[in-house]
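notes to self, project folder thing:

trying the whole complex as one job this time. last attempt i did each chain seperately and stitching them together was a nightmare. three parts in total, labels are on each line so i dont mix them up again. if this works i'll redo the older ones the same way
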Amino acid sequence: MEDFLDLLNPQQQAAVAAPAGPTLVLAGPGSGKTRVLTYRIAYLIGAMNVPAYHIMAVTFTNKAAKEMGARVEKLLGPQASGIWLGTFHGLCGRILRREADLLPVDSNFVIFDADDQENLMKQIVKEANLDEKLYRPASVLDAISAAKNELIGPEDYPVKNFRDEQLRRFYMRYQQMLVSNNAMDFDDMLMYTHGILENYPVVRDTYGHKFEHILVDEFQDTNLAQYAILKNLASLHRNLYVVGDEDQSIYRWRGADYRNLQRFTADFKDTRTILLEQNYRSTQTILDGAMAVIDRNANRTRKKLFTEAKAGEKISLVVADDDRQEAEIVAAAVQAGISKAKLNPADFAIMYRTNAQSRLLEEAFRREGIAYRLVGAQRFYGRREVRDLIGFLRLIYNPKDEVSLRRVINLPPRGIGEKTVEKLQKVARAREMSMGEVLLHLNAGDDGLAEELGKEGIRLGFFGKLLADWREAANKNTVSILFDRVVEDLGYQAYIQDKSEEGQDRWENVLELRGVTTEYDDTGLGAFLEAMSLVADQDTLPETVDAPTMLTLHAAKGLEFEQVFITGLDEFLLPHSRSRDDEEALAEERRLLYVGITRARKKLTLTRAQRRRSPYGSYEATMPSRFLDDLPSALLSGSPRGLPNRYNTSRRPEGPSRWNSPAFMPARRVVYEAPATRFKPGMQVKHPSYGRGVVKTSKAEHGDETVEVYFEGVGLKCLVASLARLEQL
DNA sequence: GCATCGGATTTTTTT
DNA sequence: AATCCGATGC
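result (full assembly):
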């Protein structure tokens, strides 16, 4: 069982086989951190005979959790099942559903995401008759979130001025509203969990006993609430095993506090600290570049990253005339890498500071005929039609959810406008019920409701009937059957598909969502909704597609690629203008770049543009990022030869760049060649909602593939390969 | 109640 | 440039 230790270096071995007790593993990028964590779990179960269900492992993303689960299972087989493995929010959700008796909401509470929160807060601000400009819902919510992350409740919200007082009131009202909606937000999940552990010693002891060993990944990105939860859970066994790297802390704005590392060693005086410095990922050149950038940050333990790999290629620096050209250069370079250097498309990643930057890149890749994967950015779950349908399902599951009710009650338009909703709300408030409950009672023919609602009552009654029927259907059927029923009853297809060509896309999205529902047929509506709230787009990327990845620097954490492009190395973009006046924020921008650089295995390219379209209007001249100053020129190549290295001299943009000098002008394709298609005529395929079929034609278009398929019992359908989950049989 | 038009308004990262 | 909000007209 212990043979696998042989595969590790001495530090890693020490980390994996560390004795019980508080342990801190400081792991530089690429030092085999995930490996250490998975082996540690395997070691505990396999060598120390700790039952899997006595172990809790917390990761930062669902994707990381999934990966870790898969790896552990590979090492241990069925012995591994029963581990509590997931994100903080996922695990807290699990505890909260179990202990819902202790909460002000019942066990089928729903989780409000940013969009729901904003809708609710808008209502609250409006209700208070205050200027929405002065109290922007998003910023009010930011303040509340910050408080929650520090475990500050509405009663304790510090008031120093009038605005604070107002914020405190909003906070109180917001919490009340959440409870009456039978809902909570992300931060509440942590706060409530902490509250339960803190106030109910019995519960704390139950979980404290259960979790003999607690392992935490990305510890530098935990916030105070999360740390407090961990401390409670580990109070009995004290086997808290945390892995982190202060240099990779990039979520301060979300309440993450890398000082938790210091708190940890202060709270657990006997902590054993293990340092992992050897890097197994990148070339020495890339590591040197990364260290040059990060060493400028104060208040950190300086680490010396080293590798046994060669120096490798230099870091390329590309200066484009404008942002459009920047995108084109990247696309062309990727194309060259694929066709000339014969690299796999999936070996490339293109990173940027803000999601908005992806657009030009996408366009350039399309023009170049390269398929790509885009991480995050409202790709799927942010779509209107997807959100709407989830809104219906949420209302069915939890009729008290008034945010969802307001969203869907008039979809498609059925004559229930603002006035009618207001009336419904008034009646509901008078009876101390939620609007959804009133609708259900109305349908059941309860007391004077129909009279009270008057003529509006008829239309509301229709909707109440729909809702009641759906609820009944939900009790008897699987999620996918319920989904079909709702879509059918609404005439949803006709509603979204009739008009434009966009309608087709939107319908595709509905079918896609329908496909997802089938995955929850065994677990039920509640599990489906919870997953919809907690599983971000990033976690659902199909790994199988062999295509370059576009993603934000934040989303890049924990990943690695052969070749990495980091775009937009302009002042005000990276570092972002919003962090300009704040030392701490600036340091975090630096860490962000550090994270990006250290994702690269073989080759790193940094790009910037001398002119860039501002988020608002026209083009503006840019200045090179200050971080470029810190890269020793010995590590660089490809900066415009014959031009002074402007990064070390002047900050002002000057003259047109020489990006198209042969030195670093990537070979550009002159003739468009249709890329090979994945699906061929005659091929047997399977689709999540259409079932089995045979490919009729397939052609490459705009870097994607359009497939025509005859489906059994369905007929001919035209699908976009990257969107439709077509599988070859 | 609903659709449309025009003017105003956008501040980054995400569990 | 794109979305949101409010006013207008039906």
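what i see at first glance: Residues 121 and 127 of chain A are 10 Å apart (CA to CA).
need to look closer tmrw
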